[in-house]
Amino acid sequence: MAIPNFFKQNKPRGFNYAPRYYDPKKEEREARRTMNGEQGAGSGEQGAHSTPYRSRIMRGSMKNYFPRQREKVERHNMIRLIVIVLILVLITYFYLFF
Questions:
Q1: What are the sequence ranges of the domains in the chain?
Q2: Alpha-carbon span 34 to 21, nearest angstrom
Q3: Which of 6, 61, 92, 93 is least enclosed, having the fewest CB within 10 Å?
Q4: Residue 19: partners with Cβ closer than 8 Å, 6 or more residues away
């Protein structure tokens, strides 16, 4: 394990990315397509599905599917609270009378 040095900061590593395949014509086409606002419209690469996938499951939509689970949790919480109160009452009873 190395000892940290507080006075000298290490230089960050360099980033040397060299693409394996580079097609300048394709980049020019993509740049023109984004400038014209034709991103995905009418292109043969993406086909008819130009809109991204959207899930039908929304946040909070599953909570109504399991109402019994919620009732069960509430019942367990109430039982736990009653047991804790009974234990505290017994402890105070023994502490005051013995």
A1: 66-98
A2: 21
A3: 6
A4: none
